[in-house]
Specification:
six-stranded parallel sheet, 5 helices, 179 residues, Rossmann fold, 30% helix, alpha/beta
Length: 179
């Protein structure tokens, strides 16, 4: 049985030049992303992206560009025998208080419903305190990486309790995919 790995898109899968990636031309994948995903795939994980993308509601990132970025990620991984099962995006503004917007667990719970996922053995890797809180609310461990918005413990301390901390997704893969 494959285990679910929930990934935040920004900071985990790609370089986020600013708080928002406006278009496909600005989208870059970290050089270690594919290697890390291969390790997780070989360890029995399937992938779901759960990502806040309020740049859509702010008019910074057109919805069509967000879709192109998702397609680009699929193009990168498919030749290696796996893909992202689905991309879940919360595009509402923070103040809209949407149940999908992290720190709420709505995107994770929707994936559970859509795919009949067992949360046993599932985990989430993200770069913000809100990712970790969403994981905790869904009942799975959340691991924090420092390759995105979170740049130090001071950014999240007191807001959440990550199950572990890593420099980036590859470091997390070395620790978690082998465990």
């Amino acid at each position: 049985m494959r285990r679910a790995l929930f990934l935040d898109r920004d900071g985990v899968l790609n370089v986020d030049i600013s708080p928002y990636v406006p278009d496909l031309a600005s989208f870059e994948v970290f050089p270690y992303t594919l290697e890390a995903l291969k390790m997780f795939h070989e360890a029995g994980f399937e992938f779901y992206v759960v990502s806040n993308q309020q740049g859509v509601s702010l008019g910074i990132t057109p919805a069509g560009e967000l879709e192109k970025m998702s397609q680009r990620l699929q193009e990168i991984v498919r030749p290696h025998g796996f893909e992202f099962r689905r991309f879940y995006y919360a595009t509402d503004l923070d103040e809209a208080d949407h149940p999908w917007r992290k720190p709420k667990p709505g995107m994770i719970l929707q994936a559970v419903e859509d795919f009949g996922i067992s949360l046993e053995g599932a985990l989430l890797i993200g770069d913000k305190w809100s990712d970790i809180v969403a994981a905790e609310a869904a009942g799975i461990p959340g691991y924090l990486v420092y390759s995105g918005v979170s740049s130090s413990r001071a950014d999240w301390e007191g807001r959440c309790h990550p199950a572990g901390e890593f420099s980036n997704l590859l470091e997390a893969a070395h620790a978690l995919a082998i465990a």
